[in-house]
Write a structure and sequence with these properties.
The complex is a heterodimer of chains A (about 120) and B (about 110). Chain A has about 120 residues and is mainly beta. Chain A is globular and about 40 Å long. The model of chain A has no long low-confidence stretch (mean pLDDT about 85). With about 110 residues, chain B is mainly beta. Chain B is built from no helices and ten strands. The chains are: A mainly beta (about 120), B mainly beta (about 110). Chains A and B meet through β4 and β9 of A and β4 and β5 of B.
């Protein structure tokens, strides 16, 4: 099946710094990628929908200036957490949908665990 | 290694009951999630089990046996809108979700 890879799997950073997470579709082209956040023992929450070549669509309550999303190519989307604070510590996961596939099946990355000290 | 095993596809009839099984092998365990995902949409949370036994929530129930590395999702009184993929996702010792490929459930009238 299609593979979506996220990097890094783990990241620890100091408060106030920025962290970039990459999401790559390895064997297919993805016009749409989704970014989620999940806090411990809570459900996966959609943060934003990333569309190749256009601005991301953010869910209500998600600060677009804090969570910068770039989807510059059909195989790569990046999420940058700017000026990270401890409350941003969470598990971030992306998923991607293959371009031109009618079923719209989503393939998920492994996730990235962010810890802000 | 870490592994999730779910049936690829299941078919059931409207109004019936269906059980979707999931077996898993993970490095440590901190609970297991079930998600529902309709085609082209983000997954939605269904249940979380951390202790052995059955958790009931309306038409959906989820069971966990940690010693067997086994879980199932039980859907009752099936409706057409239940046609979706169902994702079993255990949490390993590092609190990383291990995602299975999901089970595509097809409901027929």
């Amino acid at each position: 099946g299609a593979v979506v890879s996220q990097h890094p799997s783990w990241v620890i950073c100091k408060s106030g710094t920025s962290v970039k997470i990459e999401c790559r579709s390895l064997d297919f082209q993805a016009t749409t990628m989704f970014w989620y956040r999940q806090f411990p023992k809570q459900s996966l929450m959609l943060m934003a929908t990333s569309n190749e070549g256009s601005k991301a669509t953010y869910e209500q309550g998600v600060e677009k200036d804090k969570f910068l999303i770039n989807h510059a190519s059909l195989t790569l989307s990046t999420l940058t957490v700017t000026s990270a604070h401890p409350e941003d510590s969470s598990f971030y996961i992306c998923s991607a949908r293959e371009a031109g596939v009618e079923t719209g099946e989503l393939f998920f990355g492994e996730g990235s665990r962010l810890t802000v000290l | 290694g870490q592994n999730i095993d779910q049936p690829t596809e299941m078919t059931a009839t409207e109004g019936a009951i269906v059980q979707i099984n999931c077996t898993y092998q993970t490095s440590g365990f901190n609970g297991l999630f079930w998600y529902q995902q309709h085609a082209g949409e983000a997954p939605t949370f269904l249940s979380y089990n951390v202790l052995d036994g059955l958790e009931e929530k309306g038409r959906f129930s989820s069971f966990l046996s940690r010693s067997k590395g086994y879980s199932y999702l039980l859907l009752k009184e099936l409706q057409m809108k239940d046609s979706a993929s169902y994702l079993c996702a255990p949490w390993d010792s590092n609190y990383q979700l291990i995602w299975g490929a999901g089970t595509k459930l097809i409901i027929k009238p």
